[in-house]
Design a protein that fits this description.
mainly alpha, 19 helices, 0% strand
């Protein structure tokens, strides 16, 4: 079941209506049933996997708690390490089989072919369960929190199962922490039945998310797919525009899911963590990753980068740790070397930024560069955006070879005249559709500008205005969604990009 579907428009109000009228002690049971129903909408067999992951991490949490109360401290620590290792191995093993099995076989076969050795014939005929990377990391985050004694073990199996499968953020995040979401679920019976301001705030998040997805992301995907799928037929200007278009597409597509998830949870009284904060206003790669997919980047920081030693073991080790994190992040995103390279590029960016920071600061000071003025920050934003877009090419292309081919076309085949001869309207969007896209992008820019300058999310900004302005903006967005939204063939909802991860 997708957020941008008629099914969800029926499902969500029904779930909320029942949620607020049933006895408070039954709320977590109802939400658990609704969450599994929501997830099984793709494939009923998926429930077995998420159920297995839930059971393994739940029992592991109990065993960790039991080890904490062992009389012999040394034996308790050994038991905890063993439980953690087994739990991590089993969960990551399941993820590896379903997501990386064929990738591993293909990689081995490629190496064997270079050595003129017979290829491995066996392949995994398995369908990748949607959201497996997200709920696996969420469950493992809980286990590591319990191991560190950062959170109290959850002994209620229903509540813990709900934490892992909570439907608003189940499929594509945010990847929630037990210290945030699980602790809120422990107080589920204290959530106010009706809070008009909270519900309105959540509704604004959901409307804005649907606008980002259906009006912008799905529309701009048309020329992006047209060019990338046939990049050898187009010049450098069209391809460069498509690369920028993909940067916007993936932001609006992925950001929209997080927006809708945050809004849906808020309607029911839960506060999910912010996952995107104007990433294309970033003034550096480190700043970008503090604004992009925040739940994943902080997950890797807390559960991989810091345990590896972080920045505590010298500059070289810090650089190695950064590269490990970003290469792992790339692999998390997809089972292909192009994703790994994408992660490696961002790791290289960040290492280079870190290593040259002092030198650059001295250089700007010697050159009397005004680093606090608008022009400097704008230049930093522009450079950061170009670097990010360059990396997105490897993310979007079907292979590393295609990505290199795309870059070669951009560099060697410049066609600036297409901006003026009308050829840009032959990429899948006619003049009217392109104008709709431009207006939508202006709205996106203004909303992000308010978020960046005033530090206010859209709901806070609108609810601080006069009532007529708030209603005009919200109704205007809803009308645009219904009139200008892209509904796909036969009005089917377009799948979110991150469902494949």
């Amino acid at each position: 079941m997708q957020f941008n579907s008629v099914d969800f428009m029926i499902f969500f109000p029904a779930v909320v209506a029942v949620y607020f009228v049933i006895p408070r002690k039954l709320r977590e049971y109802w939400l658990l049933i609704a969450s599994y129903y929501f997830y099984m909408g793709w494939n009923a067999k998926y429930a077995l996997l998420i159920g297995s992951s839930t059971a393994i991490t739940y029992v592991s949490g109990l065993l960790l708690d039991r080890a904490d109360h062992t009389k012999e401290e040394r034996a308790g620590k050994l038991q905890k390490k063993l439980v953690l290792a087994v739990c991590m191995a089993v969960n990551l093993g399941i993820l590896a089989v379903f997501k990386y099995g064929n990738f591993a076989i293909n990689s081995v076969n490629y190496i064997l072919s270079k050595m003129h050795v017979s290829a491995v014939e066996r392949r995994f005929d398995l369908l990748l369960p949607v959201g497996i990377s997200f709920y696996t990391f969420q469950a493992l985050g809980y286990i590591m929190d319990v191991y560190r004694n950062d959170v109290e073990v959850e002994k209620n199996p229903v509540r813990y199962a709900l934490f892992v499968s909570f439907f608003p953020q189940l499929v594509a995040g945010p990847i929630e922490r037990s210290k945030n979401l699980l602790n809120q679920m422990r107080s589920i019976d204290q959530i106010q039945v009706w809070d008009a301001k909270r519900v309105a705030s959540g509704g604004i998040f959901m409307v804005w998310g649907l606008f980002m997805k259906m009006v912008i992301a799905d529309r701009i995907a048309i020329p992006v797919d047209t060019v990338f799928n046939n990049f050898r037929m187009y010049g450098g200007t069209e391809i460069a525009l498509a690369a920028v278009g993909f940067a916007i597409q993936i932001y609006c597509d992925f950001g929209s899911y997080s927006m809708i998830a945050i809004g849906a949870a808020k309607v029911m009284g839960f506060q999910l963590m912010e996952n995107f904060n104007t990433p294309y206003f970033a003034v550096g790669i480190r700043d970008f990753w503090g604004r992009w997919h925040i739940s994943l980047s902080t997950w890797f920081r807390d559960y991989l980068y810091i345990p590896l030693g972080g920045n505590r073991r010298g500059k070289f080790r810090k650089a190695v740790n950064i590269m490990i994190v970003f290469l792992t992040s790339g692999l998390w995103h997809g089972a292909d070397w192009s994703f790994v390279l994408w992660g490696g590029i961002h790791g290289f960016y960040q290492v280079l930024e870190d290593v040259t920071e002092k030198l650059r600061n001295k250089l700007w000071k010697a050159m009397n560069v005004k680093t606090e003025c608008f022009s400097w920050k704008f230049l930093q934003m522009a450079v950061t955006f170009v670097l990010v877009v360059f990396a997105w090419i490897f993310f979007r292309a079907d292979s590393i070879r295609d990505a290199l081919g795309v870059i070669k076309r951009i560099v060697t085949c410049q066609t600036p005249w297409v901006l003026f001869d009308g050829e840009i309207y032959t990429l899948g969007l006619d003049r009217i559709e392109m104008n709709i896209l431009i207006v939508s992008l202006v709205i996106l820019f203004l909303v992000d500008l308010v978020r960046y300058l005033k530090k206010q999310t859209l709901d806070v900004f609108l609810m601080s205005q006069n009532l007529w302005f708030e209603w005009f903006a919200v109704i205007g967005l809803i009308v645009m969604i219904f009139i200008f939204g892209e509904y796909g063939p036969a009005f089917d909802p377009q799948q979110f990009i991150y469902f494949q991860f």
